[in-house]
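Sequence design from tokenized structure. All designs in this work follow the same two-part layout: the structure record, then the generated sequence. An example of the structure record is given first.
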């Protein structure tokens, strides 16, 4: 594949107490990476065996940044991404499983698009199928307003060019916009996005996941949801104004 010639991939993971599933995830990633690639892990002071499991790997492609005290998954991901040196960036959660060819098929689409997001199979903690299509279950698709109302940009399914990350960093200083949603919105504003219908990930749902086991269910009040959307829209407008000013 021409896109891989002299190109480097960075896979970025934010971990916190991920001992139950992290090895299965790392194994599924490392078998697909090339020798020149890197796997960057930012750990938010896990107090289980997460660090010990990662340290047991002797793979030189792994870079672990530990003893962070963000207490915030968005800031933890931002820390991992700040260390990324690759031309192409993959995001990964600590508890999913990459399916074979995720790496090569996502990279192939990055020949044409600036960000690609693949479908996934929703599974339980034992990897038993819950739903065969995350896209269909969640109504995934492009659109700035659509994704502000209900985000379908899930980082574990995303890969993008470094130029998108450079535009997206630093992330807005608010918990109303997830790191993955912000990257997706930035890609729509300054580049091109493709939703790939083929599942390339086992998307594991369990009670300790950062996103809820019942995907798409919110316990927020209507007022809280409206406030969150207003903040998202203001950050998008601010980005568009600043980006236009920089081009002028």
């Amino acid at each position: 594949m021409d896109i891989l010639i002299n190109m480097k991939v960075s896979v970025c993971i934010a971990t916190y107490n991920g001992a139950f599933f992290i090895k299965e995830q790392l194994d599924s990633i490392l078998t697909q990476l090339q020798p020149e690639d890197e796997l960057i892990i930012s750990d938010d002071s896990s107090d289980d065996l997460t660090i010990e499991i990662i340290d047991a790997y002797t793979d030189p492609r792994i870079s672990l940044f530990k003893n962070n005290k963000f207490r915030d998954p968005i800031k933890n991901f931002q820390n991992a991404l700040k260390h990324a040196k690759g031309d192409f960036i993959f995001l990964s959660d600590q508890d999913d499983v990459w399916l074979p060819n995720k790496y090569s098929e996502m990279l192939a689409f990055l020949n044409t698009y600036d960000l690609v997001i693949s479908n996934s199979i929703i599974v339980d903690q034992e990897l038993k199928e819950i739903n065969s299509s995350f896209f269909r279950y969640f109504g995934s698709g492009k659109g700035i307003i659509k994704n502000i109302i209900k985000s379908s940009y899930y980082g574990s399914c995303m890969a993008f060019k470094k130029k998108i990350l450079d535009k997206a960093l630093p992330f807005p200083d608010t918990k109303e916009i997830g790191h993955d949603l912000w990257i997706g919105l930035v890609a729509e504003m300054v580049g091109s996005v493709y939703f790939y219908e083929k599942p390339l990930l086992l998307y594991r749902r369990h009670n300790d996941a950062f996103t809820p086991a019942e995907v798409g269910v919110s316990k927020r009040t209507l007022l809280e949801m409206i406030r969150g959307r207003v903040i998202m829209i203001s950050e998008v407008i601010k980005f568009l104004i600043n980006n236009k000013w920089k081009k002028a």
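The chain has one domain: 2-247. We note this feature because it recurs in several other targets discussed in the main text.
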